[in-house]
Design brief:
By secondary structure, the protein is mainly α. Helix content is 70%, strand content 4%. The protein has a 3-stranded antiparallel beta sheet. The termini are far apart.
């Protein structure tokens, strides 16, 4: 059994190193190669789960939802059932898939009663930051003005967090109750880069209707 333990320890160590380096493309490549090289068959179940979680999270960070869905579908049943974090992570993916950006952001928060485990935690934190950034860009393209409280509700952030995000982006804030009124402005590269799907606009319309 020693021969099986050694690759597992090695894989866990290498996974930690790749995550700490912070290069998400390199993380995806590591996990894909590990799977193609049949690495999951030569390690313990906890190590296999750790690699699968990083693999799934790296696809979500890249917004590669097709690859994320196919990975989820081919996960062995014992892997899915043994690690609740995998299901929680896929919950984030499902919210992204259906355009529920606020729910996706909320689902990235530490799980009730437990924080995300290492080495997954920093990858989920990166994912959460990207989701917030993406949704803020979407709001900037969809609204000429929006109350701070409404933006906070949509982004699942505190009004103070939203005010800080707005300040970082150079948005004007008109004084008013509940933190005031934001005047979003998209960054030039975002206006060109983001392809607004009609489903996302419909989702925002629905959110606004719910909040009014």
């Amino acid at each position: 059994s020693h021969s099986m333990a050694a690759p597992g320890a090695d894989a866990g160590q290498r996974l930690n190193e790749v995550v700490q380096a912070g290069d998400m493309a390199a993380l995806t490549a590591f996990c894909e190669e590990f799977e193609l090289d049949m690495g999951h068959a030569s390690v313990t179940l906890p190590t296999s789960c750790a690699v699968y979680k990083a693999h799934l999270a790296s696809y979500l960070v890249a917004r590669d939802l097709d690859s994320a869905r196919f990975l989820w579908k081919r996960l062995p049943a014992e892997v899915r059932q043994s690690d609740p974090e995998l299901g929680a992570l896929w919950g984030v993916g499902k919210h992204m898939w259906t355009g529920r950006h606020g729910d996706a952001i909320a689902a990235c928060a530490p799980q009730v009663g437990a924080a995300w485990t290492q080495p997954l935690a920093p990858v989920v934190q990166r994912l959460r930051e990207q989701l917030v950034h993406h949704f803020v860009a979407l709001i900037a393209r969809s609204y000429a003005t929006i109350p701070v409280e409404q933006a906070a509700e949509m982004l699942r952030q505190t009004p103070a967090d939203v005010a800080a995000l707005a300040a970082d982006r150079g948005w004007a804030v008109q004084p008013g109750p509940g933190g005031g009124i934001l005047q979003p402005k998209p960054l030039p590269q975002e206006a060109a880069a983001h392809d607004l799907r009609m489903g996302q606009l419909a989702q925002i319309t629905k959110l606004v209707a719910q909040l009014q």
